[in-house]
Amino acid sequence: MAREVTHEAQGPTVLDESDMGDDDQIYVCRCGLSDDGALCDGSHNATADEAESVVYKYANDDADGERRAIDEIVYEEE
Ligand code: FES
């Protein structure tokens, strides 16, 4: 139950009261699949059936994208 996501932002997102939901809470995305930047948009529901010991990659880092299991992450030599 892990997933590889690609982040392209090079700076922080500032959150304020306009980001609060109806319950006056701010929900920060931790799954990496939200289409709403740093804010949770419910896309994490796509991860509900992920297996515990598998690493996944979602096409375009989108919950609607094709989901693939990753065998191994290979890092490029520098
Ligand atoms: S935690 Fe990522 S969309 Fe909810």
Automatic annotation (TrEMBL):
Protein name, UniProt field: CDGSH iron-sulfur domain-containing protein
Highest taxon above the source species: Archaea
Gene Ontology CC terms: cytoplasm
Keywords carried by this UniProt record: 2Fe-2S, Iron, Iron-sulfur, Metal-binding
Originating organism: Halorubrum laminariae
GO MF annotations, alphabetized: 2 iron, 2 sulfur cluster binding; metal ion binding
Region annotated Disordered, chain positions: 1-20
Source lineage: Archaea, Methanobacteriati, Methanobacteriota, Stenosarchaea group, Halobacteria
Coiled-coil residue spans: none
Domain Iron-binding zinc finger CDGSH type: 10-50
